[in-house]
Amino acid sequence: MFEVEPGVRKQRQARPAVGDKRFRAFDPHQVLLPPSLDDWLPEGHLARFVADLVDEVLDLSPVLADYTEKRGYPPYDPRLMVRLLIYGYTTGVRSSRAIERRCVDDVAFRFLAADQAPDFRSIARFRRRHLDALAGLFTQSLHLAMRLGMVKMGRVALDGTNLEANASKHKAMSYGRLIDKEERIEVEIAALEAKAASLLDEAEATDTAEDQSFGPDGKHVDLPAELDRREKRLAKLQAARAQIEAEAAEKARAHAEEKERRRQERAGTSDEQAVADAGEEAAGKARPKPKAQANFTDPASRIMKNSDGAYMQAYNAQAVVDEEHQVITAADVTTNASDAANYTPMLDQSAHNTGTHPKQALVDAGYCSEANLEAAKDRQLTCGTNTFMATGRLGHDEQVPPAPRGRISKDATLKERMARKLRTKPGRAAYSRRKAIVEPVFGQIMTCQGGRQLLLRGEEGARSEWRLLAACHNLRKIFRHAGTAGLAASVG
């Protein structure tokens, strides 16, 4: 931008004088690293806890049992890979590519990998291959927390949250559009087939006509490729349509069977064949709603509404959380946006995992249904679990009104009895703890562990990844509660 005389070079400015001030020695060309990776991390670091956990505590036999082939190039040690995945899922670094980069850039990852750097394909293949075993770490983390006295099962809270699927909602199509699109593609395929047949007839008539139709070096229009593309698209549409129809039939069957069972209970009879016949008849007559959708990227995921009222392609993640240290005692994933169907299965899973039933269970209004109120009544009689189930949603800053005086009517419904129970002083005190128990857990998984969106597709993939996230949440709680010293004590 400015003229400079030839031969005149800009002189480097000298460092300003600072008098007699002395600085610490600094030589950019001399880099001294500790002689051992063990010296790179401070004592009490989370990475040290993960290393001890994998090497000394966790049972990796389900992973090791999968390696039966002696031939081939030696794979990475499973302990190394499990270390990286646990630490990654605990700190929010879940992508295989991100883990690969951290094994080069991050001291903690380099420590856990013993200065090795598995490529992202190896990490992704290991996770997919041993997905069930990695999901099984959830029960191991829970049992470890129980050995440390962190799970009391006095009061638990059950809740669900939507996890974004690894699929765009824009890749979904409604049943009505599926039928319309399917018909249009069938017409296009028929037109292309007719055009191809016409061109072949002309080609067979004369070589000159063939050159004119297809060109000297081939066809101007690649009809086979066009047909193949449309036929594949048609196959995807037909598969999505079949999925929606099968789900509608299954839903109708379940509803009809439940209705027939209730009718037989009122009549005092029992006929399973009649129940099956009612379900089969309803399934045969079932027709999907025009707005029922299927996603082409992840067909198992569903359109669900989040807490902000926005629609997203998601799975419904469920968790039962113990009050004492916010340890997750049960974790599962469903494709149903409603929470109501998960009350009994989740509490049963929690009891199975811990070996005991909680004294109190707190659930919000999303689980309230006639069937669940009946199940809560039976559970208190058989298992001793006192359920506090909200019967309706309160507005912002709205307080639960006090219970009316006097005895409750003998004709009161289960819902009215539960509403009365929540309005008592003990009921209000117990239910007020629900948010403080379970919602911070979801917040910690979403923010600290980056678990807002799933990486794996399919219901089984989503379930396994959610349980791995739950396992890492429990391990973080154990680390904060006991640290490495507590871990060694529990092993001993």
Topology:
Layout (H helix, E strand, L loop, with lengths): L45 H12 L3 H4 L13 H14 L4 H10 L1 H6 L7 H10 L1 H5 L1 H11 L7 E10 L7 E3 H31 L1 H8 L8 H45 L4 H14 L7 E3 L6 E4 L5 E12 L5 E7 L8 H12 L5 E4 L6 H13 L3 E4 L24 H10 L1 H7 L2 H14 L11 H23 L1 H9 L1
Parallel strand pairs: 1-7, 7-8
Antiparallel strand pairs: 1-5, 2-3, 4-5, 5-6
Helix pairs in contact: 1-3, 1-19, 3-18, 4-6, 8-18, 9-10, 9-11, 11-12, 18-19
Pfam families: DDE_Tnp_1, DUF772
Protein name: IS1182 family transposase
GO biological process, one term: DNA transposition
Describe the overall structure.
This protein folds into three domains: 37-135, no CATH class; 152-168 and 301-464, Nucleotidyltransferase, domain 5, CATH 3.30.420; 171-295. The radius of gyration is 31 Å and the shape is flat. With 492 residues, it is an alpha/beta fold. The protein has helices at 46-57, 61-64, 78-91, 96-105, 107-112, 120-129, 131-135, 137-147, 175-205, 207-214, 223-267, 272-285, 343-354, 370-382, 414-423, 425-431, 434-447, 459-481, 483-491; strands spanning 155-164, 172-174, 293-295, 302-305, 311-322, 328-334, 360-363, 386-389.
What would a concise description of this structure say?
With about 500 residues, the chain is of the alpha/beta class.
Runs in which pLDDT lies below 50 for 5 or more consecutive residues are: none
The mean pLDDT is: 82
How many β-strand stretches?
8
Number of domains: 3
Residue share in β-strands: 5-15%
Counted by DSSP, the helix tally is 19
Radius of gyration: 31 Å
- By helix and strand content, what is the structural category? alpha/beta
Instruction: Please identify, by name, the CATH architecture of the largest domain.
Output: 2-Layer Sandwich
Percentage of residues assigned to helices: 40-55%
Main beta sheet: 6 strands, mixed
Give the CATH level 1 class of the largest domain: Alpha Beta
N-to-C series of helices and strands: HHHHHHHHEEHHHHEEEEHEHEHHHHH
State the CATH topology of the largest domain. Answer: Nucleotidyltransferase, domain 5
The shape, in one word, is: flat
First-to-last CA distance: 74 Å
Pfam family, one: DDE_Tnp_1
Protein name: IS1182 family transposase
GO biological process, one term: DNA transposition
Biased composition (Basic and acidic residues): 248-269
